[in-house]
Amino acid sequence: xxxxxxxxxxxxxxxxxxxxxxxxxxxxxxxxxxxxxxxxxxxxxxxxxxxxxxxxxxxxxxxxxxxxxxxxxxxxxxxxxxxxxxxxxxxxxxxxxxxxxxxxxxxx
Length: 108
Prior knowledge:
The protein is an alpha+beta fold. It has one domain (8-106): Arc Repressor Mutant, subunit A, CATH 1.10.10.10. The chain has helices spanning 12-22, 24-36, 50-57, 61-73; strands at residues 8-10, 43-46, 77-83, 90-98, 104-106. Strands 2-4-3 form a 3-stranded antiparallel beta sheet, covered by helices on one side. A hairpin with a 6-residue loop joins strand 3 and strand 4 (90-98). It is globular and about 45 Å long.
């Protein structure tokens, strides 16, 4: 198997209610975040924004932003904004993703 392919185990008992609460777009974004995590489950810090995900998934940035807000609202994603300490201007966001909370874990 190529190193490009990563496998994730879905605990359907845990994931079913999460999938229903998120809806298909947010679950799709969660799957992409799991792919970006490159096997660093169950929790990982990712530096990517809605525009990056928008390009990867061929979805609008607004749809991605809405999906990230849904993931955040149920406690799977936590967003941390980094600002320039001198100017206070926004520089980037980092997302901490708790995949275990969604019923996802790496294949052992």
